Amino acid sequence: MLVQQQQRQMPITPIPSNARKVIENFSYALTDAIGKGFSSVVYRGRNDETNEIVAIKVIDKKGLKTPLHYQLLKSEVEALSQLNSNNIMRLYKVYYTENNTYLITEYCDSGDLGSLLTKQGAQKEPQLQKLFQGIIQGYKQMKQKGIVHRDLKPANILLKGQIPKIADFGFATTPQTVTTMPNVNVGSPLYMSPQAFKNRYSEKSDIWALGVSLFELLFGQVPWQAGTERELAQKMAIVPVNFPGHISDECRDFIQRCLIVDENRRATVEELERHIWLQRQELQVIKGNGFSSISRGSHGGQANHLQFHGVQSNGCINTTSPLMDNHNKQQMLIQQRESNYGKENNTSSIARQQQNSIQQQPLKSIKRVQESRKESQVNQSMNQEYSSQREEEWNDNKKNDYIIVAQMNFCRYLYRVAALIDKYRFVTTPYLREKLLFLVNKNIMIKMNNLQELVDGHNTLNLDKFQDYIQNCQFNKLSAAINQYNQKYTLQFNTVWLSLQNPEQKQLLIVDKKFDAVFDDNFTEYESFYIILNSILRSAIKEIEYQLEQKITFQDTQQLLPIDIEGGVILLDYLITYFQLASLIQECFEDHYGFAVDSKIEQIADGKPVRLTYGHYIEIRNKIKQLDI
């Protein structure tokens, strides 16, 4: 396949939203976006010469902030340029302009295997046998070209009709790039081989990922669940694969051959191609897998699945790499270390249970999650009433509920952040702590103002079929919870606001003109608020990191941190997560559903306390470097 790479000057005249943007013989409408990443947008486009539907990934070069970002993009293009298989997403052309890079690719109209699992639950074995026959053929060509994917998983296998297409080569290495690729850990932990955890990637690490993916598609869960990456790697090495349902002996052997810890004994792609499971023409029809209540991310209270990529079911490109957006970050997100500080009472637990009933989409990184043992009466009655509704009403209402509850969970998380800022005095720059505490509480009130507007009949969150939605009893119950939250948070904001009204203190605060621009009790949401917020968060994170560096003498990574230092590390971890969430809000400023899906805020807002070690602190410091804070 010949991939043309062209450099041309694109017009800088603003384009009307209903116009089609033209790149040579390709065009797309700005209203036809089908996916979005940190610095990229994917559009459903068209080849104007042939009328073929294509996907056009527009990458904003301003988002490529480090040499690694450019290297990942270069590797993606190099890999796709060398491949021409019916089971690999085709790259047609690449265009480079002063501001953007455009990847013109095949359009896949049936989503991906990850979204298929989300919508339909566990899949039948005969269907997966046919799919994996194609996947193995696609991977066989990758091996022939010396390409290692490094992030294979269901979400990165697209569907064009019934044909599987390996996609998202943002972390791939080729013979041309493997020697220059920085030594960084990439991929999604749940699908990484034991060797990949040690930054060793090869064909055999991709084979492992295919085995995990097949297992998950069959049973709705991955083979191992754990609270941390370290624990996950340990389980992979010592805990045998346990099959929770009935599959054929041939399929079981296929998976086991993929998941051999010793990669020298692990199957090659040629061995898998010849495996009896793929060669057998007639598989016994299996009526279900013997595994009921499939809920991704809810097995044993562990977040056990992959990231959601933001590409709709009719999309084709995974937009999260190589741009290192806030949700992917090479799947190197630090696990949330929860504390008891700022925990709210049972009345605030509405969000967790309601969101589990709405959309089971776990975090992109492995986090410790505290499952509520007791459903609130609100959730019980809502679940009962949902079950009696027509299917279309269920779909409309649950999406709206999901958006609302995500906003409430974000406020719950910020409430805990505010409590930590108030408790731990690791921010010593004059008035930096006061600014931060004010902004956190104002952020809560901004979100609560949007929610209160919903209660008052204004569609501030762009909910679907809003007038119909606000008439149902589920919304009435959420409204009651919103009112309860609003009273509590308003009282807290007023306390902080009044504490900063001393004339002398106020004068010193507003010397900072950026802060002065948001230092008021106006709760209208503007993007500029988050820009200023992240600037102040960045200053606080740097200062806390410096304070900790002066106090910590490194010990064994498994040793617990001293109590007087642990509080600062907890606060640092929370502020880093807040920084990421604020960045995500900017990306999804009017896409509240996108924020709900990509943040997985329900799992961030709920957690259980763990004691931190020196190893945790090292991870957090590495995260600061990765985020370039």
TrEMBL record:
Chain residues that bind ATP: 57
Protein kinase domain segment(s): 28-278
Residue ranges, compositional bias (Polar residues): 340-352, 377-387
Domain of life: Eukaryota
Annotated spans, Disordered: 340-393
Keyword ATP-binding: yes
Protein name in UniProt: Protein kinase domain-containing protein
Source species of the chain: Paramecium pentaurelia
